[in-house]
Amino acid sequence: MPTCIHPLVRPLLAAALIAASLPVAAQDAAPPEARACPSGLPAGARCFWGEDGRGAFYWIALPPNWNRDVLVMHAHGGPADTGPAKPERATEDLQRWAVTVKAGHAWAGSTYRRGGYGVTMAAEDTERLRRIVVRHFGAPRRTLLHGQSYGAGVAAKAAELYAGTDGAPGPYDGVLLTSGVLGGGTVAYDFRLDLRVVYQHVCNNHPRPDEPPYPLWQGLPLQATLTRAELAERVNACTGVRKPVAERTAQQQANLAAIINTVRIPEGSLIGHLNWATWLFQDLVQLRLGGRNPFGNVGAVYQGSGDDRALNAAVPRYAADPQAVTDLARDSAPTGAVRVPVLTLHAIHDPVAFVELETAYREVLHRAGTGDRLVQTFSEESEHSYLGEAQYPALFAELLDWIDQGRKPTPHSVATRCKALEATYGPGCRIRPDYRSAPLSSRVTPRPS
């Protein structure tokens, strides 16, 4: 039976299809405009601001005395916001990753043309910005692609889309993926459907009984007016997650334990993950996939709630639409078709992007026969957005040595190099060279194949 597409979605879908059919350099942009660098950049750096001709804003930052040696293209994380691109996003990214410029590399980062989900779109926007940099500042000796969080999925996709051929290499010489949301949309986000169904079973307030029901994979009806603050109030009322432990009622403590033990997330990230499972799902499912569901939980057996029999009998079950799964995979899932070195770093206790996603990515490359192009490192940290600062220059240096000298790094060599850089960038090297990520199925409730 054909899916009924909401009338508000039709023009958005049409625009998305048109945009997807346009070449990356379909519209030229005005030249970058020289501006004062945001705070945090090294003295003597030069910064340039612009709009790429397709709606994305960007910053380009050149270190003092840059001689067109190394350019780092940055793919940012999220997607936390939906709707039009916000210029301040690019500023925040440049300030957060100022260490790249401090290490002597040029940096360029795009907001992407809009918020919300779209891995291939973001890869195209990143490549469009690279071409702007080359057009106005010249081709660098080496170009690295750095993806952070969701942006790691963007960078992994871009490395494949622009891989080049045996006779003509692609534009990127190497890829760095940090805190990566890897594996593609369904692999990375299945657990958020688990969170929605488990949360609703326990709390029954998203939606509330007096609100119109909807399938939870929709995230939120398009016409809904629920705000993030209101959702946080509902979550706190049910679980006490924003209260000191001593102030939570016994029922709130039991509710919170049932949710986080089943879905296996830290309590501090509960509201954030619910936000993504609400507004990001709304954008992804209804505005990008025409109302078709890419997430299923039929046959998933949940454990850890305290009464798993009752939980599994009561939670709603949804079957994924095969075409939606295919379309989401086409947009976001890596195939392993990489031709350049790929180096990764992931915090072992990352509260947002499970470290086990690294295993999913590793398995993709091994199946594709490109596993020898991947080196993964892990740090003893509990952060997501930014890890120990000295680790990033160490990773860039090790990646460049791999490219230039053929010296493939190891987790031990990265850790050693990082320690040597602490004198410059401060303490924070917490790499555990012998760690290896577990299968994703050990963290996310498996679905029957």
Describe the protein.
The chain is an alpha/beta fold. It is globular, with a radius of gyration of 22 Å. Strands 1-2-3-5-4-6-7-8-9 form a nine-stranded mixed beta sheet, sandwiched between helices. Helix content is 41%, strand content 11%. Strand 2 and strand 3 form a beta hairpin. The protein has 14 helices and nine strands. Among the domains are: 141-179 and 335-449, Rossmann fold (3-Layer(aba) Sandwich); 186-329, no CATH class. It has helices at 10-21, 87-96, 98-102, 119-137, 150-161, 185-203, 228-239, 250-263, 270-288, 308-314, 322-332, 357-368, 391-405, 411-425, and strands at residues 33-35, 46-51, 57-62, 70-75, 106-110, 142-148, 174-178, 342-347, 374-379.
Key words describing this protein structure:
disordered N terminus, 14 helices, nine-stranded mixed beta sheet, Rossmann fold, single chain, alpha/beta, 41% helix, 449 residues
Provide a short characterization of the protein structure.
With 449 residues, this protein is α/β, with parallel strands linked by helices.
The CATH class assignment of the domain at 141-179 and 335-449 is Alpha Beta
Query: What gap, in angstroms, lies between the N and C termini?
Result: 24 Å
- Tell me the series of helices and strands, N- to C-terminal: HEEEEHHEHEHEHHHHHHEHEHH
Percentage of β-strand residues = 5-15%
- By CATH, the topology of the domain at 141-179 and 335-449 is Rossmann fold
Largest sheet: spatial strand order? 1-2-3-5-4-6-7-8-9
Oligomer: single chain
**Which spans of ≥5 residues are poorly predicted at pLDDT below 50?**
1-23
By DSSP, the count of extended strands is 9
Instruction: Give the % helix.
Output: 40-55%
Quickly give the CATH architecture of the domain at 141-179 and 335-449. Answer: 3-Layer(aba) Sandwich
Q: Kindly provide the radius of gyration, computed on alpha-carbon positions and rounded to a whole number of angstroms.
A: 22 Å
The largest sheet is: 9 strands, mixed
Total of helices: 14
Shape: globular
> What is the average of the pLDDT values?
93
Structural class: alpha/beta
